[in-house]
Fold these 2 entries.
Entry 1:
Amino acid sequence: MNVLDLARLQFAVTGSLHFLFVVLTLGLAPLVAIMQTRHAITGRPIFARMTRFWGQIYVINYALGIFTGLVMEFQFGLSWSGLTHYAGDVFGAPLAIETLVAFFLESTFLGLWIFGWNRLPKGLHLACIWLVTLTAYASAFWIMAANSFLQNPVGSVLRDGRLVLTDFGALLTNPTFVMALPHVLGAGMFAGSFVIIGASAYHLFRRTAEQEFFRRSLRTGVVWAFIGSTLTIGFGYAQFGFIGALQPHKFEGVLPGLALGLMITIGQLTQFAVMLVLLPLLIRDVLARARWLHPILMLMTPLPFVAAILGWLTREVGRQPWLIYGRLGVADAMTPGLTKGMVTLSFAAFAGVLGLLALVDYLLIARTVRRGPGQADLGAPAPDGPGRAAAPALSL
Amino acid sequence: MEIIWLAVLAVLLVGYFALEGFDIGLGMMLPALARARERAGEPGTRQDHRDLLVAGMAPFVLANEVWLVALAGTLVGAFPALEGPLLGGLYPLVVALLVAWILRDAGLWFRRRIDGPGWRACWDAVLCAGSWGLALTWGAILAAVVRGLPAQPFDLAGLLGGAVVAAVFTLHGRAFAAWRLPPAGGASRLLLTGVLAGLPAAASLAVTAGHVLGHAASPATLNVLGFIALPVTPILVAAQVWVWRTFRPARSTGAAARVPSFF
């Protein structure tokens, strides 16, 4: 493996890890917001419990989204400075807007939501999770806009060897953006719903004390899965309409071809299963009572995640050997002076640390699921009685 | 327009040092501050004191560390020609900074996810080590930037930079803990250490400002960025102010003091 292969592999590994967590964040955020809204409207305790339990899974997952995202943001400069040198004027704008306008607010509001529980007025606390959701989706919007520019470099002209921004609007009406954004957001809902379905199936199968909680969660998950999978599939197929004209050789390589075929197989079969089996079985809660089905539902949990990674492999490997399609080759975009030793070291550090933390994170999510809603830390109220007021293990 | 974006860059960089500086400093001082509280006869075990200290900074960390993310974004968007040479020239330091940052954050996010003294003490150690890593690499990075990115940044000047940043951060972290924990007080001291924590960053930016200006994006790009970022700026400021209003010590008595912390 030469230095270019290593740098590409590093980007692919950290990018895939990032997306595994981001896709769940995007899928769970609106659901948690809806649960909290239902609690605000109805005042029923079950919705508060659902908000806390699924919210805790959402925030544990969120941590790895941040860690991997940090590496992604800095990796452009570390390994691919040719990209910002050549197209920074165009590609940099949506990235900058993402950090300033979207992620800055997302992180700030998430802190207010997590630590403002039982402190902020109820209405403002609810507003926080909606703002987190809104800014998370804004993040996805700008990142996808930047990525779509790499697939189909619109809105710019070459001047003195560098791309100059001429039409910002064209970045936002780029067909590879307009069709891919709902596809990705749908994939998020798809993945989020399958975590809810799998976790609910676990508790229903084990016949834990939380039957009502997970019957209801299962229903929510299946409806969400239906919306998400339909969006994903619809906007997935819609991309074939223009991809032949924009990137004619996209699926000709071995890896993109295989990844595309496998993604469609998984996505289509799973969508059929949701639409034709899971959704109808919600009638009279048959799905919640059909215990023999629950292990299958648990085993299906990773499917949307696998499909999502395959989708990214198709999109990004299919772009090769270009970094900016038709304009800048990947080899030409690598940071000058980058040595094999440097990339090996950083790859080992990033992959080792992030891989280990991802594993810990998934174990913590599994543990949260297993312990059930009774033991969620997130939004835990102050213990009763003044006797424990001085206990230093508490917050301020 | 370049001047405005240089100002944005300066605000984000100095703001990051002044705000995240106390989180990093508190993380570095976590064992020492916990021991000090124990020696002072405060009730609770050493782990309880660490929990209290971490809970004190927890509501601020997410709102503080994001200043650096925004800084990197601004660098890519408004000064793209600078981003590559800067990060490429600082390669080993930036990798070290990211690893330290991730470990510090992992310590925060994971420490309370499993009950039990071993688990929490382990992540507290990671938090502390990550915080030290952050301070030392930041010092070395500033020292390297001022000297025009030397090939070997791990030298005496780099160490000296690390020592300076570590010193101001620990002071700042200590001041924050004093302000945040009961008996809360010393707001002016916190302000002073905040200025002190921002100084190394401000100084290195002042030295390199001319160089930075020469690498701005085209006016068209800067206009687009300004057009989108400007209307949102009041919201960014309001969100930060909201964090400080919500979690200031005066609001942290009575029932609010008994709410368990998530970090």
Entry 2:
Amino acid sequence: MHELSIADSVLEAVRAEAGRHPGAVPVKIGLRIGELAGVDPDALTFGFQALTAGTPWNGLAIEIENTPRRHRCPTCATEFRVVEYRSGCPACGAARTECIGGDELELAYVELEEP
Amino acid sequence: MNRVEVEKKVLSENDRIAADLRRRFKEHGVLCLNLISSPGAGKTSLLERTLEGFPSAERVALLTGDIQTDNDATRLARAGFPVKQITTGGACHLDARMIERALEGWRLEDLDLLLIENVGNLVCPSSYDLGEEAKIVVLSVAEGEDKPLKYPSIFFKSVLLVLNKVDLLPYVPFDIARAREYARRVHPGMEIVEVSCTTGQGLDDWRAWLEKRRAASRIKVTA
């Protein structure tokens, strides 16, 4: 259950962004979470509720984009989505491919209500 | 309404400290390994057996993380090498800041090898870079062989799987061939060693892996 500390890190980043817009209140944030990030979206949403309850940020909306695991074939340069751990190249059959996505844990955007 | 595109890594502060630690380890030629497993898989036992095999002049140090108690540090300190306990007081993982603080007072130039024992947990430690050169995941045969499929993130991010407690195989329903297959399904080409910290079986394979890794690290430093 490290989602609470991750929620706290997200809020820290939101605070930094809001600080650049004096008086503005964040009303919605967008997160990008990869399937390999090891973060549970429900637990994370719960963490936000716990941390923002009773503050001016109470009710902050969270949009979570789940990003799939993507690989690239070093032999033929094909990029593909890994489904059910099948990471062999679907084009040329190479067994070893490189992970190029699915590990994201990013704050994509913040929506601010300006005064 | 004003939408601001931020595009920032959530753990960028942790990653920044981890990158700094990695730079310092490299500068001083320290190989840092981060051991991760569920509670009770045998991380501390593996480290105890590893230390036993080292000459007393070995330049090794250990950091061990737990939510409470310094029991593991006490066990590991018997070997005579520097050990520090990191008590997280509730947190289910170590982060880079904890490592940075724990290293205060130690001279990295006096070390070749830093072994970090993470808090027992297969989920959260996978998100936090500690500046290590590699993660190692320990799985005991007293657990389910489908752990690699249930916790793919940590098995994907670790370079080595240590299958521990193999002396128990006659008494448990663990299918070791299937465990290996699952691990390599999640992480093609993953290196695997099978050990028993109780009987000593397979520990030579683990030590050989460690020495190979240390040799490769030394070459990188000289290059």
